[in-house]
Specification:
278 residues, alpha/beta, two-stranded antiparallel ribbon, 10 helices, 49% helix, elongated
Length: 278
Amino acid sequence: MDLKNINLMNDVLFKAFMCHENNRELVVDFLHSVTGIEKEILRRGVFIGGEEIQKRRISTKKQMTDFNIKLENKQRIIIEMNQKKDESVVDKNGLYAFSVVVELNHKNRKEYPKVILINLDNFNYFETDKPLLTFKIRDKEGHIESEMYESIHLVLANINNSKYNIDKEIKKFASFLKERDLEKLAEEFRGEEKYMAAIRTVEDLTTDEDLIGYYDYEEAKEQETNARFEQGMKQGIEQGAKQNAMETAKKMFTLPTITLEQIASCTGLSLEEIEKLK
C-alpha cells in the first residue's frame, strides 16, 4: 500500500481506523463536537465496525452499518462514510437507521431509544455550501414529532467554508479523513498527540497483510465503479448532444433554401442521418 495514497474513506480502512483502540479519544472528541453527547458517555460505549442490521424478512438483503457505537442509555450512533456519488445512499442509510430504531424500540418498550445517524458526505448530496446539516422527524408545520431519530450530514468539501463557524475538532477530523498523504498529515498535525497516534495507527494498519488484501480489493472495485460512472456520463452527454442536433436539424428543414449538406455542416450529423430524419 502506497503511504502517499492512503484512502481513509475506503470502507475497509475506515472501519478498521474507527474501531482501533488507539483512536478512541480522537473519535470521542469528534463525536462530542458533532452530537453534544458527554465524552464520558461516549468513552463507555461499545465501538463496532460493520455490524449487521437485524432482518425483518428472510428475503431481505443483508444490511451492514459502516461503524456504530452502542451507548448505555439506549442510544446508538451510526456513522456512514459516503465516499462516492450515489443518489440512493442517503435513503439507504436512513432506512438502516430506522431499522435500528425499530429494533431497539421492540427490545425496550418502556424506554424509547435514540438513534443518531452521521453521514460523512464526500460528494455534497444536497449541493449546499454548508458544512453541517441536521435533520429530525417533523410534521407539516415543522414541529418535531419524535426525538428517537436524528440525521447529521457532515459535508467534507465544505468543512473550511469561512461563512460558518465549525468546531475545530470537527474540522480537524474531516481534514484527517480527506488527506491521502501520510507525510502531509504528519506535518499538519505535528505536536498533536492524538492525531500523531492516529497516523501511527494507519501505518500499522497498512502493514496488516489481511487488511491490505481487502483494502486493495475495495480500491479496485471503486476504480471500476468510477470508470463505469464516467463512461455512463460520457455516453449520456453524447446522446444528449446527438438528440439536440437531431431536433435542430428537424427545425432547419423548414428553411426554404437550405440544403442537406448545410444542415449536416451546422449540426455535425452525417448526410445519412439527415436523410433519415427528412
